[in-house]
Amino acid sequence: MDIFIQQIINGLVLGSIYALVALGYTMVYGILGLINFAHGEVVMIGALTALTAIGLLLPAGLPGPMLVLAGLLIAIPVCMAVGFTVERIAYRPLRHAPRLAPLITAIGVSIVLQQLAMIGWGRNYHTFPALLPTAPHQFAGAAITDLQIIIVLTAAVLMAGLVWLVNRTRLGRAMRATAENPAVARLMGVDVDRVISFTFVLGSALAAVAGVMVAANYSIAHYAMGFMLGLKAFTAAVLGGIGNLGGAMLGGLLLGIIESLAAGYIGDLTGGFLGSHYKDVFAFFVLILVLVFRPSGLMGEKVAERA
Amino acid sequence: MLEVAGLQVHYGGIAAVKGIDLHVAAGEKVALIGANGAGKTSTLKAIARMLPARGSVKLQGEDIAHAAPHALVRRGLALVPEGRGVFARLSVLENLEMGAYSRTDRAQILADIERVFALLPRLKERATQTAGTLSGGEQQMVAIGRALMSRPRILLLDEPSMGLSPIMVDTVFDVIREVAREGVTLLLVEQNARLALSLCDRGYVMDSGRVTLEAPSAALLDNPAVRAAYLGE
Q1: Domain membership flag for residue A303
Q2: Which of A133, B33, B65, B184 could form a disulfide linkage to A146, CB 3.0–4.6 angstroms apart?
Q3: B102 contacts in A (CB within 8 Å)?
Q4: Tell me: the pLDDT tens digits for A230-242?
Q5: How distant is the Cα of A192 from the closest Cα of chain B, in angstroms?
């Protein structure tokens, strides 16, 4: 088995998930200039909600993929409601506060959501049932499962849909106008508060899907799973250029691949001194490199604005 | 059309507008002139609900002083903001479509885009370019065209000549004149008093947050105090 191709495949799967989460960070940052550190927790709530829903539906005897779909369809609205509520009660009152206040609030919201999840779902790791086919297909000397294919394709479809929404619809145009100049967008008749709410709801829906993907991919869900995932996705957003949709997608995929390659080769490169569980180091090493050498990210651009 | 009474604007304890009255009749062209910092922009922003203010603002007899800012465009008020405020990352066409955001009559919107292109041919050439790549004068045209896309009954213009070359100023003012000829009521804020008064029927002079003079344009152009203070004579 070719480890290089295998790790690229794994990286694409992981990167697709990062990209979906990174989009939530980057959309909110684009419109509010806020880093919503609670976004990772929404991913976690999506995973655990789907898990609970699937557990309740299990006796109905539905086929596996249907069960996962049902779990997803329940997790999405729950996460949308969480995203909407968080913006409404935690961020909106601070809309005109100095930037540090909403940032610290975001960290606070993250802790609150995590603790609430711990109370609701307990401290234990939950096994996500293997409901999707995981039989590997051989591909260029590497293995890829149906589940992995489903994850990558679903993410691709959702991202294409998002790009279409933002670039081709009236609502998307209002989002871009609001991101650039909310006061003038309001003059045009845009209800800026609604656009902001919608942005949170949209990001949270993507987070819910990502949550189910992570849980299904690793067969596990946990109240604290959103923390590291959120940080990685944030890193991906910064890598691509925060505020930039294409950047979040590219950053997510790149980070996934970097991490997977690192996990695959680190053992050999260090003569077995460091194992694959050191892969997390690479995400943050990337973050540091980006912040030092290209703070605006790969696709971030300096636009002459508000002439 | 527009009646403002006792309008006050404060910026954290500093009074920028100290209780002014002004009115603009339907079809009228009114200039608001004055020195830098006289409170002209604050007045326009307060009317458009971009700034919190005290006092009464009536648009076509209805009180709008407490209306949601994004609801005003539906009532027929459009503002071309100071510094143009174009959406730099959106294309010219998208900027115009943003101007029609409050409308849903798709066929009419497309017809109005053509109308704006006829009025401002330069914009048609630049339709797919992002607005940030345009020159200052072209951006001003985008801002005016965008405001027209809402089919305003009253158009508020904030310093449309600012930062433009003399030739571009003439072009922009020709466009404004053409807009007024089509029956749009105008309230024009300008530092270039001569330019503004030559276009408008009537003018208000603002100084330190108060209206100090109000008269037909011809009378203001003849007024020795105005000539000395604002026309540089």
Answers
A1: no
A2: A133
A3: 188-189
A4: 999 999 999 999 9
A5: 8
Residue-wise DSSP of A52-69 = HHHHHHGGG---HHHHHH
| Domain presence at residue A65 | yes
Residue A306, in any domain of the structure: no
A301 pLDDT tier (thresholds 50, 70, 90): low
pTM of the full predicted structure? 0.92
Give the dihedral of Cα atoms B167, B171, B172, B173; nearest 10 deg: 100
Query: Between B68, B71, B84, which is nearest A307 by CB?
Result: B84
Task: Count how many Cα atoms sit within 13 Å of the Cα of residue B182 in the half-sphere of its side chain.
Answer: 15
Kindly determine whether residue B150 and residue A190, on different chains, have CB atoms separated by under 8 Å: no
Helix (H, G, I), strand (E, B) or coil at A270: coil
Instruction: Report the distance separating Cα B7 and Cα B17, nearest Å.
Output: 7
pLDDT tens-digit series, residues B96-113? 999 999 999 999 999 999
Distance CA A185, CA A188 (A): 5
Phi then psi for residue A57, to 5 deg, are -85, -10
Instruction: Supply B48's token pair.
Output: 């458009």
Q: Indicate the DSSP class of residue A169.
A: S
Residue A137's domain is classified under what CATH number? 1.10.3470
Residue A214: inside a domain = yes
Using CA coordinates, name the residue in chain A closest to B148: A188
Total of domains in chain A: 1
Closest chain A C-alpha to B86 CA, distance in angstroms = 7
Cα–Cα distances in angstroms (integers) from residue A75 to residues A205, A288, B80, B120, B215, in the given order: 8, 34, 44, 50, 66
Burial level of A163, CB count in 10 A (0-12/13-18/19+)? middle
In this predicted complex, what is the ipTM?
Answer: 0.92
What average pLDDT does the structure give for chain A? 91
Between chains, do A173 and B97 touch, taking CB under 8 Å as contact?
A: yes
B79: chain A residues, CB-CB within 8 Å: 187
Asked if B85 and A306 touch (Cβ cutoff 8 Å), the reply is yes
Are residues A184 and B81, on separate chains, in Cβ contact within 8 Å? yes
Helix (H) or strand (E) holding A15: helix A3-32
